[in-house]
């Protein structure tokens, strides 16, 4: 490998490794808050996890592609990761905005229920509202932090996919 290829491979592998580690850490943290901390996720919270479920294995693919010097494919995967996290950032902003009452959240998250449910189903089903923050740290809810982390992971993936050598 020449210096340019070394630099390109190194940047792509570094970006992939950082995205992998960051996304894995966030999804493990989310599951820890849910299963150990008792914070049940709302439907939007569950949707916000999809980018991480995609990002973790995709980052492995991008890393291996960069290591094999298939830079075009590695770049494509990193761009797909970036797009996924940018979309997720938008979902996080939407969710956080609904929590702050800047705009209404989706009707499915507002605690409404279908009148065809059985009485037992209504009683036994916890209502997790998307428009109420269950927890805040430094003024941001889970959704707000998701937007921040998604933006950072997208930026890292874009850095790895950059055409500059």
From TrEMBL:
Q: List, alphabetically, the Pfam families matched.
A: DsbB
Q: Which residue windows are transmembrane per the record?
A: 12-30, 50-66, 73-94, 142-163
Q: Which InterPro entries match?
A: DiS_bond_form_DsbB/BdbC (IPR003752), DsbB-like_sf (IPR023380), Uncharacterised_DsbB (IPR024199)
Could you name the Gene Ontology cellular component terms for this entry?
A: membrane
From the Swiss-Prot or TrEMBL record, state where the protein is found. Membrane
Molecular-function GO terms, alphabetical = protein-disulfide reductase activity
Single biological process term from Gene Ontology: protein folding
Membrane-topology annotation of the record: Multi-pass membrane protein
Major place of residence: membrane
Alphabetically list the UniProt keywords.
Membrane, Transmembrane, Transmembrane helix
Query: Under which name does UniProt file this protein?
Result: Periplasmic thiol:disulfide oxidoreductase DsbB
């Amino acid at each position: 490998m020449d210096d340019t290829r070394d630099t390109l491979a190194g940047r792509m592998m570094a970006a992939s490794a950082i995205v992998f580690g960051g996304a894995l850490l966030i999804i493990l943290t989310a599951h820890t808050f849910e299963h150990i901390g008792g914070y049940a996720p709302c439907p939007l919270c569950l949707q916000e996890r999809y980018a991480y479920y995609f990002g973790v294995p995709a980052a492995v693919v991008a890393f291996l592609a960069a290591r094999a010097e298939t830079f075009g494919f590695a770049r494509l995967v990193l761009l797909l990761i970036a797009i996924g996290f940018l979309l997720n950032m938008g979902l996080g902003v939407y969710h956080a905005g609904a929590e702050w009452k800047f705009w209404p959240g989706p009707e499915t998250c507002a605690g409404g229920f279908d009148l065809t449910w059985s009485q037992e189903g209504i009683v036994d089903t916890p209502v997790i509202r998307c428009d109420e923050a269950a927890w805040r740290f430094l003024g941001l809810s889970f959704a707000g932090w998701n937007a921040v982390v998604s933006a950072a992971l997208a930026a890292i993936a874009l850095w790895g996919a950059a055409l500059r050598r």
